[in-house]
Design brief:
By secondary structure, the chain is of the alpha+beta class. The chain is built from 5 helices and 9 strands. Helix content is 27%, strand content 23%.
């Protein structure tokens, strides 16, 4: 019989595909040592497996990570203390991830260069906000935004195990001012 935390890990990996081990450790919301024990036990019991060189974990060693989903999960992790373990899941295209925080729905949309036109496919609803992840914040100035509250984010890898996630408001983008929003 699976423990609750093990059930969560299996749910996340079945929803998102392979994820970096660091993300799973953080998503468990336990001490690092406890989270490590949970994942080690799951690997020992063949419930999860190393993918590639072991940076990623998946339900089997042939799992392949989706890089847009991985970026979306890095953004989710900035809110993880306010999100229930199963209150996030894959969203409908072009969004990667949906989560509930304080009765408000958020969709994370990861865009690469030249994909700004995908925002036209979004269908805004009441009580839904978007977090649009772009490779460079300057790209946000050229986007045609949906009629819904939007927040922008960049995920900056600087050689660390966890990237820095920076947030920007719509106003600061239009004013050309870089501003971190906590």
């Amino acid at each position: 019989m699976l423990l609750e935390d093990e059930t969560h890990v299996i749910q996340w990996l079945s929803q998102y595909g392979a994820l970096p081990k660091t993300q799973l450790l953080r998503m468990l919301q336990k001490t690092p040592a406890t989270s490590e024990k949970i994942l080690s036990r799951m690997k020992r019991e063949l419930q999860i497996a190393d993918v590639g060189d072991g940076y990623y974990l998946g339900l089997d060693p042939l799992s392949r990570p989706d890089q847009k989903t991985v970026l979306a999960v890095w953004v989710l992790l900035r809110f993880i203390d306010f999100v229930e373990p199963l209150a996030h899941y894959p969203a409908s295209f072009p969004s990667q991830l949906f989560f509930l925080k304080e009765n408000t729905g958020y969709e994370i949309v990861v865009l690469y260069e030249g994909e700004g036109n995908l925002l036209r496919l979004l269908q805004p609803q009441d009580d839904l906000k978007y977090i649009i992840v772009v490779p460079r914040i300057a790209m946000a100035q050229d986007l045609r935004l949906p009629r819904a509250p939007c927040l922008f984010a960049t995920v900056e890898f600087q050689g660390l195990e966890e990237p820095e996630v920076l947030f920007y408001s719509e106003e600061t983008i239009h004013n050309g001012i870089k501003q971190f929003i906590s």
